[in-house]
Design a protein that fits this description.
mainly alpha; DNA polymerase, domain 1; hpI Integrase, Chain A; 4% strand
């Protein structure tokens, strides 16, 4: 990485200081700083010939054309598209901040385009990873959390539908248990496997009305709280890059291997078969 002028470092330090109140983790802030040092070192090096080999940083000298040249230079050294896009996004953040604080008259980064990213196949959770996740919630969570994770893994229902479940929506007295979910005009029955049926019967004895309540407020669990809860156990299990929505996707792909498209559409509550087709490709 090339050296950066004192003026350039001053700008970087001011920008990084402005981020510290945004609850960003230290690694993210370090990446921002490294990205900007790389760009500023490259920018100042380009201008050394006209500045008698003296490193000088100036926002107003950075044009859209120069940013495009920088993007092309990164492509030539075979950086990953995701790395190039991260650096360009950091530059966009810097220019937005600089324009807002009057350091630059024009935001030259506004029209720089990111690289298209290749679509990677979804991360399917294998049996060993599924066991790690269930072990994590069993070891570190309560009965409520165990029920939530098992429903998300084995029924594929949406986060919002989990939060809106009421005791009356659970029918475990039937031979094959079901839960009834969805908006009022689009209610549907989702089958339960024996594992979900058994733990729901145990859990329901402790609740009335809404099935899942917040420990803090005693009210219905919110979607935001549920996503945070799922993320916590995914982290404990060491499953990176996954979310509550990943569990629904995982259910869809697994079920597609042994279920017809129309049946899967009914179970997952898809309004269009085009959505369901995703799981059969």
């Amino acid at each position: 990485m090339r050296n950066v002028s004192s003026k350039g470092m001053e700008i970087i330090d001011l920008f990084i200081d402005s981020l510290r109140g945004r609850n960003l983790n230290s690694r993210t802030i370090q990446e921002y700083a490294a990205d900007l040092k790389h760009f500023m070192g490259w920018h100042e090096y380009q201008g050394m010939e006209t500045c008698q080999n003296v490193l000088i940083f100036s926002f107003d000298q950075i044009t859209l054309k120069e940013l495009v040249t920088y993007k092309e230079a990164m492509k030539k050294v075979d950086l990953k598209p995701s790395t190039i896009n991260r650096r360009l996004s950091t530059i966009k953040l810097l220019f937005h901040w600089a324009h807002h604080h009057g350091f630059v008259r024009k935001d030259s980064s506004k029209h720089i385009k990111l690289l298209p990213l290749p679509k990677s196949p979804p991360h399917m959770i294998n049996n060993e990873e599924e066991k790690r996740l269930l072990d994590a919630v069993k070891a570190h969570g309560n009965l409520r959390d165990q029920v939530i994770l098992k429903l998300m893994i084995f029924t594929g229902i949406r986060a919002g539908e989990i939060c809106n479940l009421k005791v009356v929506d659970v029918k475990t007295f039937q031979k094959s248990g079901v839960i009834i979910v969805g908006a009022e005009n689009q209610r549907r029955k989702v089958p339960l496997n024996n594992m979900c049926k058994s733990i729901l019967e145990k859990y329901m004895a402790t609740n009335t009305n809404y099935l899942f309540l917040s420990k803090k407020t005693g009210e219905r669990l919110t979607e935001r709280a549920l996503r945070h809860l799922v993320k916590k156990y995914l982290d404990i299990a060491g499953l990176e890059g996954l979310s509550a929505y990943s569990l629904r996707h995982n259910f869809g792909y697994r079920k597609a291997a042994k279920t017809s498209m129309h049946k899967l559409a009914r179970i997952m509550g898809h309004n269009s078969l085009n959505t369901t087709m995703t799981y059969f490709k």
